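fold-stage: in
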Amino acid sequence: MTARFAVISSLAAIGLLAGCTAGDDAAKARATAAPAGAQSWMPPRTPWGDPDLQGMWPATELNGTPLQRPESFGERATLTDEEFAERAKRLEGLNARYDDEIKNHKMGIGHWAEMGRPNRLTSLIVEPANGRLPALTAEGERKSATMTSSWSNIPFDRVSDFNPLDRCITRGLPASMFPFMYNSGIEIVQAPGYVVIRLELIHETRIVPLDGRPPLDPAIRQWLGESRGRFDGDTLVIETTNFNGESPMTIVGPGGRPIPTSASLRLVERLTRVAADRINYELRVEDPVVLAQPWKAAFPLELDDKYRFFEYACHEDNSAVRNFIETSRYERAHAKPAR
């Protein structure tokens, strides 16, 4: 908890995401397409010749952009000027909470949440065309109905009533590559034959070999799966399989329906550095056991060399799980008999 508050209170405002001011056509395009001249721009190379993707690429500034597109937008991928102005006003108010709390000698959600900066994207999901998660299969529906977390309105009896994020294990994939309310740092480090993706939230590291080694035996299952990578021209392509199927596909929150995963989950990510300060990130998700069809997300990641990870000390002084269980036991013991 201390580390989380330190993140919010220590970080200064980060450079603008691929957003724009209303009516600025050039900046508007930047939210959804590569910068002008990107086709002729050549990414830097590492000393051993790979495209250089290294640096801090926090997803923080994408907060405020929904994963799923509101149904009212239909298949429209970008906001109008009026809609963008509304988003900018809303985020300005949310981001002002920190200063308001300092002024009034309080500490609340303003010290906790990083709400990002406005951009034109109506959703992070771009396929299906409506920008929404596809329907679940019958098995997906069954599995979703059994999933619980700290957001569930249930009596808590055991640790397994909480999901892996509640228990400080993992956000899982693909959720770990999406922005969160805090600690959304992503760092890319490279070495000959490897790309390493460090994640600030839940202190995890993805090691991606590039040497063409075969996949792991299917019997070996892991929380973040097992990744294999290759460069397709200037684009890093990462295929990840061997998941254990025990983490949600997306972050569970208030009113959010849990989306399950299975051991058949397969991710294909594409990272293309299109400018000195920008990576275009794409993610394709397929899991035929729980999803009726695959889906795809796409969004920009912007370089911020000043961003620094804070220790995500999730277990340190974290008594939330115990408190949930003890409170449920107390409420059950002192419940009034039904009339």
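fold-stage: in (second)
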Amino acid sequence: MNIASRACTWLMSVSLVVFAPGGLTTGRDNGIWAETRFHTGCDPGPAHPPPWPDPIVTHTASPDAPEQVTLDIDLDEASAPILGSGFNFEHALWSCPAFRSLFRTEILDPFQPAIARVDSGLLPAAPAELSAGQLGPAVYESVLSSAPYADSWRFMRRLNRTGVKVVLGIWGGPAQFTFDGTRRGVLDPAHYDDYVDYVATIVHFLVQHENVRLWATTVANEPDGGDGNQIPPQGLAYIAHQLAPRVAADGVMLYGPDTADGQNALDYLPLLLADPVVADNLAFVGFHQYFPSSQVGDVVSMVHARLPQLPVIVTEYTSFGFGDLDDGQEAHNEFGYTLDITTTLLSHYRQGADAALYWDAIDYLQPGHDAITRWGLLRGPGRDFARRPRYAGFLQILPYLQPGARILADRQLGGAELHTLEVRTAGGPPAILLISQDFGELDLTVELQGASATRYPSWSVTRFARGHVGGIMGRQRFQDGTAHLILPPRSITTLFPAGEAPQPDSSAAE
């Protein structure tokens, strides 16, 4: 849009009074567009359907003798350093004062996220009753400047102060730009340039007006038909080409294709990687993967064959097998859900991902789903941010997946339902992560190989299992690099050398 048309758009927009769905208004505050389509704070609502109670999960242990499994770990053969781990966050949480007081103690300090993926707005920053021709940067910036978002941008700056890399998600452009007039509709090519204006305006607003440091922004969230505008590969490539220099002017890079799975990412990546303008401005390749799959490895192979140094990040992972958590339901099997999401996490790093970001850290309102979602490690403000059992499961894994950690080579014999990952932590010592999905015990022998195989004779054991949701279980002795232990059914077991630290001693460098 040229300057004259944008000015006309602004004059038209501020002269209108519009009504949003459900009888709410997208109003004006002293002639400026203000967002009033949803609530923030400690009682954002809505909360339908009623949350399911956390069930008591039972299973019958196998009467068979424990299966014998052998795990050989090479302490000398390791991957390149990973970028760490992270979370998706709902930024409007910062509007609840109770959350601010516990963010460090409940999230930052225990899990040490290296990357935070944060949405640009709870809904597209475009009043629903304006036509596509009436939209433009003045309208977008006005909506994003309104009261419901003030605390959101403070949250991003809070992340900046901790050193967490902030990446931006765009959960769909204005519905007016799609063929059917819905946020999840197919983006009309006639509005590709308007969509570029929309994303570039948000980035510029956050960087220049709100002093937020962004590492990268997505081109579009789930353009393959998920939660956002649908955009075909050729369209996304065109948009990325136009968008790259616009956001680069604000010191921000791109990531994508942010598809709903790795298989679809393979359809989008060739055009993106073949365009020098896009490739030179990619911070990383990002996509979603909600279950263990070799698709992650396929994406890593494609990317590294063209750009060996370009990181690959799974920007969303979770599990859809335990209820409609997007619609406000509780997972109907909390224990099974925890095993499922942690198994997926381990698989992504085994397949070569440089980082993986869980969807999402804490329950909160998502107006696009008209519900308080239930993915969080912490429940929402209506439940006093209480920890779910899955919190303890992640606490046994994420502290070891910090920037600089390296994935170790291993070889496993037996144990089809045993999922493992071994890392050389950023501090140097190794960690062994074991997830058993088996309904019977496993008789596991661990054999360490390499020059330091006998360096660590005593290991602390942490366990997530029936009757023991996290915490130190005791010590495991290794004799000449070999240990023998029984893994209980349906459990997470973490081994780490006693007395060591997974992080480098920062005080030694000062």
